[in-house]
């Protein structure tokens, strides 16, 4: 079973790929990619680690690949 992904790593990668915080309501934050108004990503910010299935959903929403989150910058 895949391990959970740290929330800090997800947010750091989204910001480095030109996503910015649009709104936050309760525990859910919405990020949008600069120059692409239709590319929205919703992230739950209450947990320190995100389950792998939720991480896959974030990948689909963002259009990024899993390798983008594993690269060291």
Can you give keywords for this protein?
73 residues; Metal Transport, Frataxin, Chain A; two-stranded antiparallel ribbon; 5 strands
Note the beta-strand portion: 35-45%
* N/C terminus separation: 27 Å
Cross-sheet strand order for the largest sheet? 2-3-4
Proper CATH architecture: 2-Layer Sandwich
H/E element order: EHEEEEHH
Biggest sheet layout: 3 strands, antiparallel
Q: What is the alpha-carbon Rg in Å?
A: 12 Å
Number of distinct beta strands? 5
Structural class: alpha+beta
| Overall shape | globular
Question: Can you put this structure into words, describing what you see?
Answer:
It is a single chain. The chain has 3 helices and 5 strands. With 73 residues, it is α+β, with helices and mostly antiparallel strands. The chain has one domain: 2-Layer Sandwich (Metal Transport, Frataxin, Chain A), CATH 3.30.920. The strands form 2 sheets. It has a 3-stranded antiparallel beta sheet. Strand 3 and strand 4 form a beta hairpin. It starts with a strand and ends with a helix.
Set out the fold topology.
Blueprint: E1 5-6, H1 7-16, E2 19-25, E3 28-33, E4 36-44, E5 49-50, H2 52-62, H3 66-70
Brief overview, please?
By secondary structure, the protein is an alpha+beta fold.
């Amino acid at each position: 079973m895949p391990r959970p992904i740290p929330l800090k790593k997800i947010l750091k990668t989204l910001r480095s790929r030109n996503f910015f915080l649009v709104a936050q309501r309760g525990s859910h934050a919405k990020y949008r990619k600069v120059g692409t108004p239709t590319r929205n990503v919703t992230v739950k910010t209450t947990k320190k680690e995100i389950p792998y299935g939720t991480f896959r959903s974030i990948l689909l929403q963002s259009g990024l690949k899993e390798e983008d989150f594993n690269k060291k910058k």
